[in-house]
Amino acid sequence: MIVVASSNGNVGIQASMDVLKSGGSALDAVEAGIRLVEANPDDHTVGYNGYPNLLGELELDASIMDGSTLETGAVAGMKDYVYSISVARKVMETLPHVLLVGDGAERFAAEMGFEIEPEMLTNEMKDFWEERLKRDMPDDVFDNIKDQPDLSRWVTLASDAEKAKSTVNFIVQDKDGNIASGVSTSGWAWKYPGRVGDSPIIGAGNYADNRYGACACTGMGEMAIRASTSHSLVFYLKMGLSLHEASTRTMQDLNDLQGRFISGMNLVALDQAGNHTGFTSQKGKTYIYQTDDMDTFVETEREFVAIKHRWG
Ligand code: GLY
Q1: Where are the alpha helices (DSSP H) in 112-220?
Q2: Model-level pTM?
């Protein structure tokens, strides 16, 4: 049994392993681990108290995938509910659909009995959002931001390198060999309202198939959507490549993307035999893992593959 996660999964990986050790499924373990990251007010890239969009609203994306059936559920642009991974799981288990967005996702969450959280941002986060926007934006624009006819011109703030694009990934293999994967994020800081990244897009930020393995991404979601990154890696495994070759090839595909906006990408992956890896285009990044014979998790460096940065 193994849990692999992005490094910000450190607050949830033990709970995830505990679920496995008490006989829970890979899906249960993915959900348990990610819920703790979503509730962590100090993680500003996932769940409660994440970085909001340009309008100061928190919009959450998440997905979960069952590698034993290829069933999946996802939500995107969901406000007012902390545990988007659990709502995503309910989508998978309750509906004939795989992805709910915005009002529909919120309505469904209420219907399923999830508790609404009226204050998804702390006052410190609201102040930080205001201070950050006002660094670039005249006060009169900020004061009328909800009615700005040209909000798109301010989306340049969303490329704020300090605060962009993190996310949490969990990939789990349970005692029966079943693999599940989950991803949750608040997306880019200061994004255009309604922007959806790769996390809830199956095949882009998340993919699991018991027969071959799983992959999940953090980084610039637009790139993972364009390259179908998570599915590509699993497909390369299916074609007989080793985990290392499949991951390297997947990163190279991202570097081959053309166009004006290319930035950083990171992935974690697990193959059906339980081998794991992490890759990044930013040197020094790490990921974590824990097997059932380990008392605690290990943090280890990801392998670096360069992706040429282009912006605008
Ligand atoms: N990878 C998360 C996002 O781009 O929203």
Answers
A1: 123-136, 139-143
A2: 0.97
